[in-house]
Structures are given as C-alpha cells and as structure tokens.
C-alpha cells in the first residue's frame, strides 16, 4: 500500500476521491426565500369585469334616451353640467328623480380625445357604485 509522506494512505490507496453528498439545508433555504419573494411580489387582487355596451353608430340616439356623461381630461360633464367624480352619484339621482321612468334608463359615457383609461374606469366605477344599471360607451360625436 503506498503511503504519503506523513504516514497516511494516499488517495489512490483509499479507492479514489470520496464524494460528498449534496446538503439539503441550503437547498431548502433557497426554496423558502424564493417562496417568500413570490408571495410578497404577487398581487392577490381580484379582477372584475365592468359590464359595458357600445352604442355603435347610434351614440346620439342613445344619449337622447339616457343620461349623457362626457369625460374630459380635466373635467366630467353630467347632463351638460360640470361635476367632480363625487358628484356623479348625485347627478344620476337627480336625473332619475326628474324622469320617473328613467330607473332602467341608459347611461351613456362619452370619453373625449386624450382621456386616459384610468380616468374612464374611475368614472365607470363611480357610476356603478351609484347604481347605474345599463352603461354604454359612445364614440366621439
């Protein structure tokens, strides 16, 4: 048996280099850190759909039957009067009170040019919260 200089058997005498097993502790640590990262980075927000109908080419006819809400970059107009987002519910209630048969009437939302989607969705949310049942989206006049 060949011996090393210090008196211990050489690697060749022991049958080759010894293989070490893969430690599972670091692997579990990495998996746990990835799990925590993805849990914190994920969004558990519920997505919901906004019921919306398009008026097609009859936007003015639908606007004559229902309440017209015009959304601009800087202001929102409800039945021709400028209102803020909080005033949309009051405008809808006034419109329904003025027309007793307007409970099922349509609300037509007409976005102006350059209006971003966030602002349009905020208006649609306020109308839905105020109880608007049928909301339609009209194109530019």
Account of the 3D structure:
The protein is α/β, with parallel strands linked by helices. The chain has a domain at 53-137: Nucleotidyltransferase, domain 5 (2-Layer Sandwich). The chain is built from 5 helices and 6 strands; from the N terminus they run ααβαβββαβαβ. It has helices spanning 11-14, 24-41, 59-65, 88-98, 117-130, and strands at 53-54, 67-71, 76-78, 81-83, 106-111, 134-137. Strands 1-6-5-2-3-4 form a 6-stranded mixed β-sheet, with helices on both faces. The radius of gyration is 34 Å and the shape is rod-shaped. It starts with 10 loop residues before the first helix and ends with a strand. The relative contact order is 0.16. It is found in: Cell membrane. One of its GO terms (biological process) is protein transport. InterPro entries: ExbD.
List keywords for this structure.
38% helix; Nucleotidyltransferase, domain 5; rod-shaped; transmembrane; alpha/beta; 141 residues; Biopolymer transport protein ExbD
Short note summarizing the structure:
The chain is of the alpha/beta class and 141 residues long. It has 5 helices and 6 strands; from the N terminus they run H-H-E-H-E-E-E-H-E-H-E.
> How many β strands by DSSP?
6
Silhouette: rod-shaped
CATH class placement of one domain: Alpha Beta
Low-confidence runs of at least 5 consecutive residues: none
Annotated CATH architecture of one domain: 2-Layer Sandwich
Radius of gyration: 34 Å
Q: What is the CATH third-level topology name of one domain?
A: Nucleotidyltransferase, domain 5
Number of helices: 5
Helix percentage range: 25-40%
Strand order of the largest sheet: 1-6-5-2-3-4
Structural class: alpha/beta
What is the CA–CA distance across the termini? Answer: 99 Å
Beta-strand percentage range: 15-25%
Can you write the helix and strand succession as a string?
Answer: HHEHEEEHEHE
The overall pLDDT average reads 77
Oligomer: single chain
Largest sheet: 6 strands, mixed
